[in-house]
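Sample log: Crp/Fnr family transcriptional regulator.
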Amino acid sequence: MSLPHTPNQNHLLAALSAADFETLAPHLELVPMPLGQMLFEPGSQMRHAYFPTTSIVSLHYVTESGASAETAGVGNEGVVGVSLFMGGESTSSSAVVQTAGQAWRLDRHTLKAEFNRGGALQRLLLRYTQALMTQMAQTAVCNRHHSVEQQLCRWLLLTLDRLPDRELVMTQELVASMLGVRRESVTDAAGRLQTAGYIRYRRGHIGVLNRAGLESSVCECYGVVKKELDRLLSDVQPRQ
């Protein structure tokens, strides 16, 4: 029997006080997030923000040639749609569901009105946005200076942090698209991690067998992103 789905499964919603949450609660809508669903397209007007719970959303940029690379991922730690409260109504990147699950959706008018009140929600969203900017910057550095194997370790660890189990439903083609590299490069990197006993890959499933092994092989980028998120939200306590 599955447990009831609640907004508290998203860390930002869980951090709001009872009074602040009660203001948002009537406007929150639980929605399914199927794999591959496009939430935002470049230049399109954004109508909702999404607070993922069991899903993960990939923010990525697609070039004119069709090549793409992920700039950041958003899971239960955050919100998709920061442009809505940062002064814009659209974004130059796409937002696509990377891991199927669910999310709580909030219409843009309610989000902007609550943000503009200048209370706890505003402070929380601004802190999270800084952490998201750190992730984007570190992803750019990682993709430029570190090996595909290190990039894969970073991506796997960040994904694991957002999921309750160690089994990821993910094809190598999708991982290659996220990292902006050739599929063969991901195959080689995953093969080395599997030989080392860190992961198991079969039929579109990646199982993590040894997290400590991944952490020993990853570059410093994973630690920078995790440390900044923890620092910015260190004093945030879940609502009882």
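Observation: Residues 147-218 form a domain with the Arc Repressor Mutant, subunit A fold (CATH 1.10.10.10).
Observation: The radius of gyration is 18 Å.
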